[in-house]
Design brief:
The protein has strands at about 1-5, 15-30, 35-40, 45, 50-65. It is mainly beta. Strands 1, 2, 3, 4 and 5 form a five-stranded antiparallel sheet that branches.
């Protein structure tokens, strides 16, 4: 996922867990009323049921975003 300079993602919430690993740049991660800056090499996981959004910091950013559980629509064992 790339986040262009000056960009903020729309607020989002959904069931499960979300994991973020920063590959380039930096983002401000807002989770509910809390904020945290993530820089290259930082990783975080959180309950994605809380409203969250990302904003670029210091220009464009690139991150890997993996959603964990629960997996919907998958057959058992996958």
């Amino acid at each position: 996922m790339d986040i262009a300079a000056g960009t903020t993602t729309p607020p989002s919430s959904h069931s499960g867990t979300e994991w973020i690993f920063m590959m380039e740049g930096a983002v401000e991660l807002g989770i509910g009323p809390r904020g945290r800056t993530l820089e290259v090499g930082d990783a975080i996981d959180f309950d994605s049921g809380e409203e969250h959004m990302l904003s670029s910091v210091f220009g464009a950013a690139r991150l890997m975003l993996v959603m964990g559980s629960p997996v919907t629509g998958a057959s058992p064992g996958h």
